[in-house]
């Protein structure tokens, strides 16, 4: 059973989300609620939910501020709800890896679909942790607790509604060593890059660039564990021509620099 926190300052919307949704249908339970961003932060720390559904504009602290202060530490999935006038503001949350934006009034059937997708993603995270535990890599279990590295096998087994998503995954897997962009694939298959990115995010919960970077870091971790290459060589091998940028991205997803990662696992 997955736990959900609902953060919304409008009582009628908050209560509607809590009581008008058949949460058991998607193997979830609402573990708490909050009416503003500051209260939401306190509840996140207390409950440690799997999924947070939050409004954007709220008293004391807005939804974006709440996410900025908690999502990295507590590693939950997030859904933002907003009105049309707030949508551009809500999109700022993309850097926080927010999975979905739901526009008011909320389409409950679409919410069900979104929750189902998120619970599958969370289950994938759990599997990563269990695998790491089974091979007794204690330090790496600590590193991977945030589960920011892809469980690529999960996506390889998926059936996607949009045929281009599989093509994008294959493009990343075969070309990640090179300097690539979604525009390259867009020109190759003659489909708008904006359309491709939208469909990719709908079905994987990641933007194309985020998925590409995560996949590259996954490959770099494997190369680091092999111990055959220097860090700057690994950076080039996985598609980062700028060594400093590689270090920055590695720390973003792993939480440590490559050298510290090696020291912890030597």
Task: Kindly describe this structure.
With 266 residues, the chain is an alpha/beta fold. The chain has two domains: 2-118, Response regulator (Rossmann fold, 3-Layer(aba) Sandwich); 148-264, Homeodomain-like (Arc Repressor Mutant, subunit A, Orthogonal Bundle), CATH 1.10.10. The protein is built from 14 helices and five strands. The protein has helices at residues 11-19, 37-47, 63-74, 87-90, 108-134, 138-143, 152-156, 163-175, 182-189, 193-204, 208-226, 231-237, 243-254, 258-264, and strands at residues 2-7, 28-34, 51-55, 77-82, 100-103. β3 (51-55), α3 and β4 form a beta-alpha-beta unit. The chain is globular and about 55 Å long. Residues 135-148 have low confidence and may be disordered.
Main traits of this protein?
Arc Repressor Mutant, subunit A, 14 helices, 2 domains, globular, sequence-specific DNA binding, 5 strands, alpha/beta, two-component regulatory system, Rossmann fold, five-stranded parallel β-sheet, 266 residues
């Amino acid at each position: 059973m997955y736990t959900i926190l609902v953060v919304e300052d409008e009582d009628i919307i908050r209560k509607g989300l809590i009581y008008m949704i058949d949460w058991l249908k998607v193997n979830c339970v609402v573990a708490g609620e909050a009416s503003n961003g500051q209260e939401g932060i306190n509840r996140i720390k207390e409950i440690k939910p799997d999924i947070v559904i939050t409004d954007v504009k709220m008293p004391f602290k807005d939804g974006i501020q709440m996410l900025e202060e908690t999502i990295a530490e507590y590693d939950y999935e997030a859904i933002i709800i907003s009105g049309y006038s707030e949508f551009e503001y809500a999109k700022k949350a993309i850097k926080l890896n927010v999975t979905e934006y739901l526009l008011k009034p909320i389409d409950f059937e679409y919410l069900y679909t979104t929750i189902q997708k998120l619970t599958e993603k969370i289950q994938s995270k759990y599997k990563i942790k269990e695998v790491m535990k089974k091979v007794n890599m204690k330090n790496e279990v600590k590193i991977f607790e945030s589960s920011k590295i892809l469980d690529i096998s999960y996506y390889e087994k998926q059936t996607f509604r949009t045929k281009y998503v599989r093509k994008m995954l294959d493009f990343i897997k075969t070309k990640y060593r090179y300097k690539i962009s979604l525009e390259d694939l867009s020109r190759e298959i003659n489909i708008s890059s904006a359309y491709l990115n939208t469909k990719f995010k709908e079905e994987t919960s990641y933007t194309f660039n985020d998925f590409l970077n995560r996949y590259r870091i996954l490959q770099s971790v494997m190369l680091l564990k092999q111990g055959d290459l220097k860090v700057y060589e690994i950076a080039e091998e996985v598609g980062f021509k700028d060594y400093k940028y590689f270090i920055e991205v590695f720390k973003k997803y792993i939480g440590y620099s490559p050298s510290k990662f090696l020291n912890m696992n030597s």
